[in-house]
Each structure stands twice: as C-alpha cells, then as structure tokens.
Amino acid sequence: MERERECQPVLPEAGVGGEGLHRDETVLGPQTDQDLEEAVRQAFFLDPDLDARRFTVRVVRGVAYLGGTARDEAEHQRALAVARGVQKIQRVVDEIACPACAEHPA
After folding, report:
1. Beta-sheet strand order (sheet of 55-60)
2. What is the distance of C-alpha 13 from the center of its chain?
C-alpha cells in the first residue's frame, strides 16, 4: 500500500502551479493603426451598452479619434471608456456629438 502512494502523481493544489505557459504579451494584440481601429470597433460591438453603429473610429499613431452621435451621456462616457480600455491606445480624442448632453451638443 505504501508503494502505491509513491507511484501516484502529485497534483498541484488549486491555485498553486499549473498556470500554463508564460508568454511575452508585448507581441500580442493590435500592432498597426488599422489593427487598433478594428480593435476599438470590435470592443464597441461587444459592449452591450453601446450601439456601435452610431460611432466612427479613426486611429493615428495610437491616438483614437471617436466621432458619431451618442444617445445620451451614459453612452457617450461608455464609448470613451471602452476605447481607452483597448490595448495600445495611447489617448482618446472626443469628437462625439451628444444632443442630450449639456457639454457635447450636436
């Protein structure tokens, strides 16, 4: 019986070891401005709080220029936050019109 225990593999406890392969994430993600534009558009389409069709995205040297028209202040702020959350976006320029917003009327 003691011998059987010696032959059994020792599995790591939950959360200890076995995290998988480590990888260099600096080479992952969007690389060009065109890739970044697509990444922002995809992030908009994946966000249930945004109507992605209402927005335009242009990226120049890592700076995202957002245009279009937001329904309300919540959607306006959400679009800015989603774009800022995209990997390698360095800055977001707000060109979004928002007729319902006091600060960004059409």
Report:
1. 55-60, 63-68, 91-94
2. 32
Three-state secondary-structure class, residue 48: coil
- Cα 23 to chain center, whole Å? 19
Q: Is residue 68 part of a domain?
A: yes
Question: Range of 89's domain?
Answer: 30-94
| Helix pair 73-84, 33-46: axis angle to 10 deg | 140
Cβ distance 76 to 67 under 8 Å?
A: no
One pLDDT digit (tens) per residue for the chain, 106 residues: 555 555 555 555 555 554 554 444 455 667 899 999 999 999 999 999 999 999 999 999 999 999 999 999 999 999 999 999 999 999 999 999 999 887 655 5
Q: Is residue 59 part of a domain?
A: yes
Token pair in block for residue 6 = 């010696």
